[in-house]
Amino acid sequence: MKHILLLSVVCALLLSCKHSGDADIMYNDSLPPVTEGYVGLQDGHFVLDGEYWFPLMLNYKAFIDGDRVIPAPYYTGTDLREHFDTIASWGFNAVRVCLDVMGEGDSAAKFEATRRMVQTADSAGLKVMLLIKTPFDPYWQSYTKGLLHHLADLPALWAYDFFNEPLYFDPEPERDKMDAVRLASEWRHWVRTYAPHQLFTIATAEPIEVFEWDPSMLPTDFVEMHTYHPLRVYSEMWWYSRYCGKPWMVGETGLPADNDSVPWDWQWWFLYRTFERAKYLGAIGYGWWEFQDCPSGVNFEAKYTGLRDSTGKSKSAARVFTDGLFCFSCYYTDEELRPVNYYNMLAYSNIRLTGRIVDKSTGKPVEGAVVRGWNDDWSVGMNTYTDSNGRFTLYSNDYNVHFEISAPGMSREKFDRRNIRYSNPQGIDTKNLPDRQREYQQIDYRPYLNNSIPEFPFNTDYDSTHFFRHSLEGDMGTVKLHKL
Asked: Is the peptide bond before 473 cis (omega within 30 degrees of 0)?
């Protein structure tokens, strides 16, 4: 009996040590030490050799061929140094090199190829954020640890991005928030162990990332967010600036411009205004997608967001940072910085559904919760957010049936609700609602731009009530979330 009791105690102690170690890995948010020559984080800003450093970052696609990093095949020219010199001449000081598409093979050769690429960028005056293949399986886990160790002595490699937009590319379709935290904690632990002077991040997409890869819970050193489309960018940046819970930067944004249906000058204004707004909202870095147009892209956005056209000619937007027209002396209140379409990004006008989100344990309102609704056949989704009173108004053009709701650091609720009653004060034909399939991809954003000087995304005289018209009214009631 004594032996059984002793064995039980030993097992309990071992389990306690294991859980304690896991807890240290999962919840230790300490930053790497600020080291001379390396980019660090201090007081919520990037720092380099005692001064604040603001990354102006251009995304650059590349692949590994044997022992060489080669540019994307649709980039004109094959000389990395020429490309990096061009990027630096445009006023950028950093590149996000996307090396997340590769197959298994000679790891040592890949490490050396990546090292030479970073050194080439460094010689052009650029720091490198490296997007790697997400290490889900054992081979790539081993590869990643080796890569971190092999490149740890390169100060020009300032950050690792372990996962590009989990919202769209996570192989697990319904990942629990705490599982995402566990994975990210393990990855960050590798960075701390094998590359102790470099920073760790994950590239999150739109605010509905909060349903699974909650940016406020992920133990990244900083949040790198991606946002596209003129009707969405200001709103999504505003949400991240208030609710992601840590220093944040724009990692990707872009406006496609073919100099035909969308003039290159509009792209210039888009880059100018989104960079300006990001700075006013407190972003600590800004990144553009991408270096050069992709003529075989799957859609207009994928084809024409480059700062060079498909022939290698620089577009006017490439001059934004060298034109030097920025002035940040103005002061704006939160009310002025929050875009007019924050609660109704796509100007839906058929239905207004209200509700409230509260903390289950305290009953207090939850601010910044993300509310997602879908129509019956899941073909159209729409988002909104709760205000300081926990209240939300979800505008839509079709009836919402499926719902998902979460908030930073809180649980996720998914449910269907088909019995919502809608009042119809205007007596409209409820069976023939207009524009029921209206989605942002189909919306021509050009009318929302100022025709004389396209100051993205809304000119100051735009009628804000356009975003708050509605016909049918319903109420969801109260939804309760609990803290995680």
From this structure: no
Task: Give the three-class secondary structure for 384.
Answer: strand
User: What pTM, to 2 d.p., does this model score?
Assistant: 0.91
Q: Which domain holds residue 232?
A: 36-323
What token pair was written down for 44? 């919520």
List the beta bridge partners of residue 412.
406
pLDDT digits (tens, 9 = 90+) for 201-229: 999 999 999 999 999 999 999 999 999 98
What token pair was written down for 376? 């019956």
- DSSP string spanning 426-463? T---TTS-TTTT--GGG---GGGS-SSS--SS--TTS-
DSSP class of residue 156 equals T
19 located within any domain: no
Count how many domains the chain has.
2
Burial of 91 (C-beta count, 10 Å sphere; 0-12/13-18/19+): middle
User: Of 43, 220, 202, 60, which is closest to residue 128 (Cα–Cα)?
Assistant: 60
Q: How far is it between the farthest Cα atoms of the chain?
A: 88
Coil, strand, or helix at residue 193?
helix
Are 234 and 315 within one domain? yes
Same domain (yes/no): 214, 352? no
Give the tens place of pLDDT for each residue, 369-400.
999 999 999 999 999 999 999 999 999 999 99
